[in-house]
Amino acid sequence: MEDKSILLIVGGGIAAYKCLELIRRLRERGVDVRVVMTKAAQQFITPLSVSALTNERVFTELFDLDDEREIGHIRLSRDADLILVAPATADLIAKMANGLANDLASSVLLASDKPPLIAPAMNPQMWLNPATQRNVHQLEADGARFVGPETGEMAERDEAGPGRLAEVPALIHAIEEMTASDRSTRARGSPGPLFDRHVVVTSGPTHEPIDPVRYIANRSSGKQGHAIAGAAAKAGARVTLITGPVNLPDPDGVKTIKVETAREMLAVTEQTLPADVAVFCAAVADWSVAEQGDQKIKKKKGKPPPALKLVANPDILKTIASRKKGRPELVIGFAAETENVLQHARMKLKRKGCDWIVANDVSTETGVMGGDSNSVHLIRTGRHESWPELSKEDVAATLVEEIARELASTKRTAANSKSIRAKVDKR
Ligand code: CTP
Questions:
Q1: pLDDT tens per residue, the chain (427 residues)?
Q2: For residue 209, how far is its CA from the centre of ligand 1 (angstroms)?
Q3: Is residue 218 annotated as part of the catalytic site, yes or no?
Q4: What distances in angstroms separate CA 192 from CA 184, 186, 218, 233, one per listed residue?
Q5: What number does the ligand 1 atom closest to the CA of 282 have?
Q6: What is the whole-number distance in angstroms between the Cα of residue 335 and the centre of ligand 1?
Q7: Residues near 259 by Cβ (< 8 Å), separated by ≥ 6?
């Protein structure tokens, strides 16, 4: 990133303080940082503290004669290799999605000749509001990239969910990826077989809380799901990855949304539709704890250990596959089996109502869970094929090729039946 220049647009939110740390980390890496602050941002941090870190004045006003003579909003946006909006409030996102330009931040963004990187931070209900989600989809369709928001506790009491500003390492990672992926997109020059398609992928385990410090989890690493999301992005798709807690970096060029529980994963998956393809790779916990303790459950001397009462979690794959309206064109499930792999997977295909199942043997001796390779069977109604042992990246790339082939053939069939209909109508 050395010698890159970033224009950081700081919106008004409690998370604005994280920008100070971000600027410091970027400067350490030799990145030149210029900052525009909205009026609201100045309620949370002062231009003085920001300019002490950037070694440059902070830009706040659209109509500042000095600025317009020396460095106007057009130059501010053109000089930067990347514009990062952090924290991006619901208001800033709405302005960007609708092309408003009534202050310096929104004018710079509208005048920009490159897509911005957007790091949202807001209350979970504001983030999940259909209006915000519409704006986010619009911005993605316009080429913007998103990092976060992350899921967790909010500054407001008793508020939790997706809406926290991505942490500084995640922001830096996204900046690195975006500046690198700009180069690779330019080098690639071709839009890819999944261009203009929206692919949703679930990945990783879910964590089901028992009390504030304990949870139920499983051994899924997320490697396979993350690899599929990355491969779909390389094939030109707009990809939304919804992941449970994993120790993996967000894949290049992918919008990654982090969740914890199965219920959150379902809610976010539904919010991200419509999609052309949905791949359900997450190892979703089948059960959650019926009564989660508000406080850490304590041992009681002489008493038996507490019994956990479990309740069924929603089946995300089945819920999406059985949608009457807005079902993705291709719904793909995974089957993690420890015996009778093909037989169980075929039953799962039927039971879940999906189009394909990718089945793998996850018994301990295979080392698939957490490992780097996988041997899978791709099962469709009436036929199946078994692939040799491949790295998880190669399984992902091969699956994405199959997906692209399938979408191209259904498009051809649709076009053919349209032209047959036209011929019949002429007669
Ligand atoms: N799945 C899901 N939601 C759940 C459980 C599973 O979306 N609550 C999805 C997984 O992402 C996977 C598929 O369903 O694509 C099969 O998951 P698997 O764990 O193999 O099957 P289960 O439905 O849990 O059935 P069983 O535990 O009986 O094998």
A1: 677 899 999 999 999 999 999 999 999 999 999 999 999 999 999 999 999 999 988 998 877 645 555 557 777 888 899 999 999 999 999 999 999 999 999 999 998 888 899 999 999 999 999 999 999 989 988 888 899 898 877 777 777 788 999 999 889 988 987 877 555 444 444 568 898 899 999 999 999 999 999 999 999 999 999 999 999 999 999 999 999 999 999 998 899 999 999 999 999 999 999 999 999 999 999 999 999 888 999 988 999 999 999 999 999 999 999 999 999 999 999 998 888 999 999 999 999 999 999 998 887 777 777 788 888 999 998 889 999 889 999 999 999 999 999 998 776 566 555 555 555 555 5
A2: 19
A3: yes
A4: 13, 12, 35, 9
A5: 11
A6: 7
A7: 151, 162, 206, 242, 243, 244, 265, 268
Residues of 291-319 as b/e, b for ≥16 C-beta within 10 angstroms? eeeeeeeeeeeeeeeeeeeeeebebbbbe
**CA–centroid distance, residue 196 to ligand 1 (Å):** 29
> Looking at 55, 129, 218, 374, which residue is catalytic?
218
Question: What's the pTM value of the predicted model, to 2 decimals?
Answer: 0.60
Measured from the CA of 318, which atom of ligand 1 is nearest? 7
Q: In the chain, what are the domains? A: 1-188 (3.40.50.1950), 190-288+308-418 (3.40.50.10300)
The residue to mutate among 315, 330, 332, 337, having the most atoms of ligand 1 within 8 angstroms of its beta carbon, is: 315
